[in-house]
Amino acid sequence: MKIALGADHAGYRLKDVIIPFIESLGHQVIDFGCSCADSVDYPDYALEVCERVVAGEADKGILICGTGIGMSIAANKVPGIRCALVSDLFSAKATREHNDTNVLALGERVIGPGVAEEIVKIWLETEFSQGPRHQNRINKVKSIEDRFAIHP
Ligand code: RB5
Predict the structure, then answer these.
(1) Is the minimum distance from the CB of 66 to ligand 1 under 6 angstroms?
(2) What is the pLDDT of residues 24-79, one digit of tens each?
(3) Residues 106, 63: contact at Cβ < 8 Å?
(4) What whole-number distance in Å separates Cα of residue 138 and Cα of residue 13?
(5) Spatial distance between the Cα atoms of 115 and 102, rounded to a whole number of angstroms
(6) 67 pocket-lining for ligand 1 (C-beta < 6 Å)
(7) How far apart are CA 19 and CA 27, in angstroms?
(8) Residue 75, CB half-sphere, CA atoms under 13 Å: how many?
(9) Which positions bind D-ribulose 5-phosphate (predicted)?
């Protein structure tokens, strides 16, 4: 798979740990930065990554900030993105199976690199549980998105 990655100044260190790990799993990484501790704004990186995912230029996205919260809030504003902020292995699996999430948010100040790698591996390797039960709920989420969409 092609995985788009983005981080702010509070997440780039974890991003730089995660990138070779994802490559070692056989995936291709597209790194949208940032790459140093200079202060930046997480929505800029969330938008960059999420645009690539909805355009089909990347199969999935991973976003990292201090908590993962800002990245997940921003990502979920992009129509077509289902982003989960994950800090544990159970949720990493469940959010693929139940929510078919296409973007994962992580908090560098919340979890260590070992847990982050395990989360990423499970999240990348778990398939969506096909079938009407979860798909109907995802369709309802999409209908909320459609209801509030601005049509020029
Ligand atoms: C940056 O200080 C921090 O606010 C940001 O990385 C993130 O945690 C926001 O949700």
Answers:
(1) yes
(2) 999 999 999 999 999 999 999 999 999 999 999 999 999 999 999 999 999 999 99
(3) yes
(4) 33
(5) 20
(6) yes
(7) 10
(8) 33
(9) 8-9, 66-70, 99, 109, 133, 137
| Residue 65 annotated among the catalytic residues of the structure | yes
What domain count does the chain have?
A: 1
Within 13 Å, how many C-alpha atoms sit on residue 52's CB side? 22
> Does the beta carbon of 10 lie inside 6 Å of ligand 1?
yes
The domain of 47 spans 2-148
pTM: 0.97
Distances (CA, A) of 120 to 86, 132, 136: 9, 26, 26
H or E segment and range at residue 28: strand 28-31
- Please give the Cα distance from 56 to 72 (Å, whole number): 19
Locus of tokens 């994802």: 22
Ligand-binding annotation for 146, yes or no, is no
150 band by pLDDT with thresholds 50, 70 and 90? confident
Cα distance between residue 146 and residue 92, in whole Å? 27
Ligand 1 midpoint to CA 31 (Å): 19
Return the CATH number at 70.
3.40.1400.10
